[in-house]
């Protein structure tokens, strides 16, 4: 290993020789080839599209050159994306801080209290601004949030109809996402000009209103909402949160569901993402919410503590009964948006919104003064201007001054104002429409003074209630206070900057600083997703290179980077399969076979793509049961659409019969979907396309080094063979035609932006560029070696549940703790919580098998850290044995009382039968480097019985 790969991979040559010696292999290559079935080994390529590995300096220089191809411009396109000022204290202490961006999903709440507090602040912000009872911990983007709102309305409504009404003034990308999502599940969309008084159909299950509209128009939708309720439907309103500081909230208008984006709350545009969407619901619908919900519970001492509420809603549990396939959030971006509200407070947000409104009013008046036809009198930040036959001329004049406006049609131009807009910007835009240029000293007076916010707005639509009243939005106003608050929250969490997070299936590997650097560069961060192609050539070149590289390493012909989560990549791949069958006249192929071991999002995605799920059994070794598979294929041969299979399997083994499995499905006319979640165990040694896969999604937030960010962002690109490529996601506002046709049965996008969360793609580009094809293979080898080392060292203490024919595991191993419970009474939960006392995040609990731990060390951890984990697991086993031997009572021992806080061992009299040292310093290495959990074990059930999902009063923590 040389260059960057030697820094990314934690074990050096000496460490690897040590581990190989214990396993009985003479090289990493020999180990992996023994584990991976010979039938799928990749043939070495004579040439590669992936260049030789670059140094860190070279990769940054190449990224600088790509960034330089993006033409700097002031984006005034709007349509849900706005330039914004990210407070420097948030940029430095959240976005660029590994304590925040390397954290995992808060499934272990005791070591996630900082993140959870930030997310409940986000939820409180959303509920206050929308006027609704409960908000979740974020959605993927606005358009997919609208689609989720549509599905929520369908299942919550008692109306016996498939009709959903869509506002004609909705965002174009939202209409497109709705079309593709609705067609898949049999929803009939009816588009109506609701603001112009169009009557609703007699039957509907819901109505969707954009507020303000895409054209900028603000109107009172309460009558439409009332009519929808009379028809038995629910009302979904997409609302601009900044506008809601001045406008009546959706809840007061009667809305059942509010959705939208929090992007303009300090989160850069990033060519489309990642951004935190939001969803809020009225009382009574909280158990219908998709995604994640943070709630308040209490710990073992009765202290308030945060945790994920109603976790049985998680889609990996509900599987084919799921109502959504979303199992992630946009945590890092939700934290940024929440802290933006904390930083500004309600007064600051209202001042920003008022300034935006005043600027827009002034620009409208300026345009009218020079004979332009501004469409609406009531607006917040967006204008539509009629310029018969000259729209392109106006837009090009604006571009000549460095501004991007929206081309609505040949006669209409759109302009959107944001918090960064200056008087000079307004003067230049007015000039593009034919007004004279303002002199330098007269600009502010010309555009600013004398205008009131929402000047021509109906008084009934102006907001008059208080919001963001919780002390958190009023306390941290100085830079010092804000910095310390963010530090305090981060210190309550455990992230990769503290130690290993050995989570099976989630690949918590290094997120190198050089990979992260470019996401903050303005040439990447401050780019609108619908900017003209000529202005984003650097982005498009980088995206094309990454697509080519990903296609090569997976064995596919085409890749789409649009899906902004693994679940959305699954959906896109399944929609491509459906589109392909339909194009061939096989409209009856609607059965999807899925092994019982699969992650629950597989089944959920299949349902949302309009398929029926048929479960295939697994054998005792964790492999797909070939006999059951052939029987299911025979039973459904005429209607078989696809098989979804994870490779290596969710059980952490390389299935020997994967080629035969794929062939059996192909022989029956079906397609093979290979879930790419475990690609980290295959890269450089085998390719999905070569083992029979037709389509796969990948997880860039796993295999390709994008950080998890506390549970999001993610990117889930989808790759496909040539025959499916025409059915990969398209987008109506894409700068180029990536795939011919898009999803066949209308539309095609699965996310709001053409390239999804493009703002974080420089991370994966840099990872591949610096690793090269050789480094990617080295990473796979190191990951497989580390997992087998752990399995071999721990096997005598905890049975390893599944291995391949060679006796080896893939990049993860499943430790069976069920015998431990039978022998000692100690549960998998007890072990997971006790690991916190040893300074570790627990492995994946009870998935895919209840009562087990799935451990994935990744290639990034060094041998010392692996040995530290092995030492902790062996010591915990000894503690459990001591409980069984009667040395400690079953109800009062270090395991059932774990984790131990500093307060629990210092305050009051120590009454436990084990020492304080045993409680918090079970191994000597912890004395100087102890991570102290802020709360004791949290009572999950109590929190669900007493559901509170907004910031509790300060007195609760007294």
UniProtKB/TrEMBL annotation:
Belongs to the GcvP family. One of its GO terms (biological process) is glycine decarboxylation via glycine cleavage system. Residues 779-900 form the Glycine dehydrogenase C-terminal domain. Its cofactor is pyridoxal 5'-phosphate. Its EC number is 1.4.4.2. The lineage of its organism: Bacteria, Bacillati, Actinomycetota, Actinomycetes, Micrococcales. The glycine cleavage system catalyzes the degradation of glycine. The P protein binds the alpha-amino group of glycine through its pyridoxal phosphate cofactor; CO(2) is released and the remaining methylamine moiety is then transferred to the lipoamide cofactor of the H protein. Keywords: Oxidoreductase, Pyridoxal phosphate. It comes from Microbacterium protaetiae. The keyword Isomerase does not apply. The modification N6-(pyridoxal phosphate)lysine is found at residue 702. This is Glycine dehydrogenase (decarboxylating). It holds the Pfam family GcvP2_C. It catalyses: N(6)-[(R)-lipoyl]-L-lysyl-[glycine-cleavage complex H protein] + glycine + H(+) = N(6)-[(R)-S(8)-aminomethyldihydrolipoyl]-L-lysyl-[glycine-cleavage complex H protein] + CO2. PANTHER family: GLYCINE DEHYDROGENASE (DECARBOXYLATING), MITOCHONDRIAL, GLYCINE DEHYDROGENASE, DECARBOXYLATING. InterPro entries: GcvP, GDC-P_C, GDC-P_N, GDC_P, PyrdxlP-dep_Trfase, PyrdxlP-dep_Trfase_major, PyrdxlP-dep_Trfase_small.
């Amino acid at each position: 290993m040389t260059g960057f790969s030697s820094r990314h991979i934690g074990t050096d040559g000496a460490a690897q020789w040590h581990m190989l010696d214990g396993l009985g292999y003479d090289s990493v290559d020999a180990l992996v080839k023994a584990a991976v079935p010979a039938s799928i080994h990749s043939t070495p390529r004579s040439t590669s599209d992936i260049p030789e590995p670059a140094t860190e300096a070279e990769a940054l220089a190449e990224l600088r050159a790509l960034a330089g191809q993006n033409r700097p411009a002031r984006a005034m396109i709007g349509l849900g994306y706005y330039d914004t000022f990210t407070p420097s204290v948030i940029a430095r202490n959240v976005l660029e801080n590994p304590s925040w961006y390397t954290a995992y999903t808060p499934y272990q709440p005791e070591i996630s209290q900082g993140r959870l507090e930030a997310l409940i602040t986000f939820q409180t912000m959303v509920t206050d601004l929308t006027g609704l009872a409960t908000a979740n911990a974020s959605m993927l983007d606005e358009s997919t949030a609208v689609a989720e709102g549509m599905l929520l309305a369908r299942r919550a409504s008692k109306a016996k109809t498939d009709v959903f009404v869509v506002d004609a003034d909705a965002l174009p990308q939202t209409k497109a996402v709705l079309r593709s999502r609705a067609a898949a599940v049999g929803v009939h969309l009816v588009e109506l000009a609701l603001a112009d008084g169009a009557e609703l159909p007699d039957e509907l299950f819901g109505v969707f209103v954009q507020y303000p509209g895409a054209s900028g128009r603000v109107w009172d939708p309460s009558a439409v909402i009332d009519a929808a309720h009379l028809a038995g439907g629910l009302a979904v309103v997409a609302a601009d949160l900044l506008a809601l500081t001045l406008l009546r909230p959706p809840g007061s208008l009667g809305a059942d569901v509010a959705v939208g984006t929090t992007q303009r709350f300090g989160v850069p545009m990033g060519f489309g993402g990642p951004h935190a969407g939001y969803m809020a619901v009225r009382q009574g619908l909280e158990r219908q919410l998709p995604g994640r919900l943070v709630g308040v519970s209490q710990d073992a001492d009765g202290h308030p503590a945060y945790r994920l509420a109603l976790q049985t809603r998680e889609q990996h549990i509900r599987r084919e009964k799921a109502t959504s396939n979303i199992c992630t959030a946009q945590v890092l971006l939700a934290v940024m948006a929440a802290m933006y509200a904390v930083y500004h407070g309600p007064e600051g947000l209202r001042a920003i919104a008022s300034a935006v409104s005043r600027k827009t009013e002034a620009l409208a008046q300026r345009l009218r003064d020079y004979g332009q036809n501004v469409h609406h009198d009531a607006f917040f930040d967006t204008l539509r201007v009629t310029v018969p036959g000259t729209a392109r001329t106006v837009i090009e004049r604006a571009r000549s001054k460095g501004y991007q406006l929206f081309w609505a049609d040949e006669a209409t131009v759109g302009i959107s104002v944001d918090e960064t807009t200056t008087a000079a910007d307004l003067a230049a835009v007015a000039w593009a429409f034919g007004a004279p240029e303002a002199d330098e000293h007269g600009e502010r007076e010309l555009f600013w003074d004398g205008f009131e916010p929402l000047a021509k707005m109906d008084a009934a639509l102006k907001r008059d209630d208080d919001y963001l009243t919780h002390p958190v939005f009023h306390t941290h106003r100085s830079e010092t206070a804000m910095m310390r608050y963010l530090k305090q929250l981060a210190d309550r969490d455990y992230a990769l900057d503290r130690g290993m997070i050995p989570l099976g299936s989630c690949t918590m590997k290094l997120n190198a600083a050089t990979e992260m650097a470019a996401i903050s560069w303005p040439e990447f961060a401050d780019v609108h997703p619908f900017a003209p192609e000529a202005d984003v050539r650097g982005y498009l070149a980088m995206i094309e290179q990454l697509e080519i590289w990903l296609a090569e390493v997976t064995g596919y012909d085409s890749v789409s980077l649009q899906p902004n989560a693994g679940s959305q990549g699954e959906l896109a791949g399944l929609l491509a399969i459906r589109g392909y069958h339909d194009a061939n006249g096989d409209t009856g192929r609607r059965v999807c076979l899925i092994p019982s071991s699969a992650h629950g999002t597989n089944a959920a995605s299949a349902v949302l793509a309009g398929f029926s799920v048929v479960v295939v059994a697994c054998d005792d070794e964790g492999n797909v049961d070939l006999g059951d598979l052939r029987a299911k294929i025979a039973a459904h041969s005429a209607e078989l659409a696809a098989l979804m299979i994870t490779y290596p399997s969710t059980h952490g083994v390389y299935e020997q019969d994967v080629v035969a499995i794929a062939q059996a499905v192909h022989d029956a006319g079906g397609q093979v979907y290979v879930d790419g979640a475990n690609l980290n165990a295959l890269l450089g040694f085998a390719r999905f396309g070569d083992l029979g896969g037709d389509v796969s999604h990948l997880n860039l937030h796993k295999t390709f080094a994008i950080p998890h960010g506390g549970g999001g962002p993610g990117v889930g690109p989808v790759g496909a063979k040539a025959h499916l490529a025409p059915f990969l996601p398209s987008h109506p506002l894409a700068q180029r035609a990536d795939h011919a046709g898009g999803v066949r049965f209308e539309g095609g996008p699965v996310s709001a932006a053409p390239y999804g969360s493009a703002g974080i793609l420089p991370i994966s580009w840099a990872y591949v560029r610096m690793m090269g094809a050789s480094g990617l293979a080295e990473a796979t080898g190191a990951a497989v070696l580390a997992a087998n080392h752990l399995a071999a060292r721990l096997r005598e203490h905890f049975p390893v549940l599944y291995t391949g024919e060679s006796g080896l595991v893939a990049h993860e191993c499943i430790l069976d703790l069920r015998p431990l419970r039978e022998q000692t009474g100690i549960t998998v939960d007890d072990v997971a919580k006790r690991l916190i006392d040893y300074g570790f995040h627990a492995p994946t609990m009870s998935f895919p098998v209840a009562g087990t731990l799935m451990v994935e060390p990744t290639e990034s951890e060094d041998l010392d850290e692996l040995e530290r984990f092995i030492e902790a697991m062996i010591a915990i086993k000894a503690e459990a044995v001591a409980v069984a031997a009667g040395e400690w009572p079953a109800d009062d021992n270090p395991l059932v009382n774990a984790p131990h806080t500093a307060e629990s061992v210092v305050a009051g009299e120590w009454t436990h039968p084990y020492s304080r040292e045993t409680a918090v310093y079970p191994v000597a290495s912890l004395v100087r480097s102890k991570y102290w959990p802020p709360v004791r074990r949290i009572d999950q059930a109590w929190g669900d019985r007493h559901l509170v999902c907004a910031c509790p009063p300060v007195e609760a923590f007294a």
